[in-house]
Fold:
Amino acid sequence: MALEMSAREAYGNTLVELGKENKNIVVLDADLSRSTMTRFFAREFPERFFDCGIAEQNMMGIAAGLAASGKTVFASTFAVFASSRCYDQVRMCIAQPRQNVKIVASHGGISVGEDGFSHQSIEDLALFCSFPGFTVIVPADAIEAAQAVRAAASTYGPFYVRLSRPKTPVILDDKYRFAVGRAVTMRGGWDATVIACGLMVAKALQAADALAREGIECRVVNMPTLKPLDEDAIVKAAEETGAILAVEEHLQHGGLGSRVSQVVAKHHPVPMSFLAIKDCYSPSGKPEELLQRHGLTAEGIAEEVRSLISRKGQ
Amino acid sequence: MHFRKQRVNKKSSYPSASAKSLSAEATSSKEVALALPLSIEEMERKAKTLRRHIIAMTAKAGSGHPGGSLSAAEIVTALFFNHLRHNPSNPRWPDRDRFVLSKGHAAPLLYAALAEAGYFPVEELLTLRQLDSRMQGHTDMTITPGVEMSAGALGQGLSFGIGIALAARLDRRDYRVYVLLGDGECDEGQVWEAAMAAAHFKVDNIVAIVDRNRQQIDGWTYEVMDTEPLAEKWLSFRWHTIEVNGHDLSQIIAALGEAKLVKGKPTASIAHTTKGKGVSFMENNLDFHGRAPTPEDAERALKELE
Structure:
């Protein structure tokens, strides 16, 4: 069993390191600092931490005002509240003025689990990708989360970083270097490519292992940055493997799959398929049960790749 | 009912505060030679000039919001031409006082004040709402010198202002933040989230000024969404609260001076005003909330404002 770590814990620890290195960093939360792990920072730097209470819209406005005054601001809450609850506040105060605000949200996707649809975030990537000038990142594991948070702190402009609630397998090592807008080929292959983000990358790697035992060599590309996209990696995958499956823990429309398909359609059309959350809200349940319902498992990915390959050259 | 013991200051209960605040102004302008504060009479003339610009701009543009711009002319005049520490030749001066226009539809008023203060040429005002003009229909902080916030979607300026005020605390700077809200804007829930937060964080370098012109697009505020008792609301949110006649410059100046002396809590000023103030046929006339004067209207209005 691979080592498992939660990305939000990595976020909390990284914020403390950043706080020591950079006095200009300010952190806001909306009464969820025990879940988003910003409480680590709050403990170390109480004067630079503001708990805004259960008032996310106000928090985004305060974040923007601090940023307009030269601060590097991290604002955290659950993904569902950061996106749909505050869309207009983020649009007016952060996106349009290109403020240096980093919205790092935990509890992304349906792997929130038992809390049910009110807390499951399935539209957030579409919403944040819709803002002109926003950088949108979904790290694949705790290692990548820590580095993405560092990159956000050192790169000017508005960022959205989506983290998961559960502990997930660590699939990258300490030598890994994250760069904004750069995809990473996790496994080589020539028969098809799976492009995934977040906790689906680990499942794609498991699927590729299973497919290899059948003689199918499936490339796995980790696409942590949804915006701006690594278009070169997508075109290369289309040219070299002739089929692409996009996998994400998000609605099928407006997220990774939609964005990848635009690039494929424009530059090198090949058969594509999409594994994502169907056009519906999900009930309470264990994270794995919910993911299974949408085929977001290693078996589901392998199955989809087989059927995709059968469409090649038709 | 602890808050009832506090006083809602009425009108001229603080006659001496203005002189004190003016002398404090003069000594704090250290970096550059700033324009001298105008006298009450000079400000009265300046407010009239701003009103003439508002009429001319919106008439030329053929659209815009003259009513809520005219109502706040004295408030904005008092800030830009007497009270604020600012430098039009250095709009991003880190120690400047910030004016945040939360009611972004009063953009013509802000542009008129900025132009008169020297942030950009007065002639540019007449490009209001034209393609690629710096005089956008609602404010855009990324392109217009002196504009602190992109606004137009209501209810957000106070939150933004709190962020600026907290940054002053972290950076140990002594600038102050002034946020102008509409009374209709106070329908927005975010205003009260922000009101609660400012008191909680004990932000005492922020002043919220509510342009209480009693009208919003669909009618009188008491008909559309009754915000009364408005002053008591701010008081109960633990703000030092001052009610003034928003067209009386000495009252506005005195209230701004009083706010500077308040420590440990934010100050709200409810400025009672008349929508469309200064032009007889626009006063209290809902039609001019979001409609520009016709050329004939403008001619009549400008005559009244001579």
Remarks:
- The domain at 4-169 of chain A is CATH 3.40.50.970 (Rossmann fold).
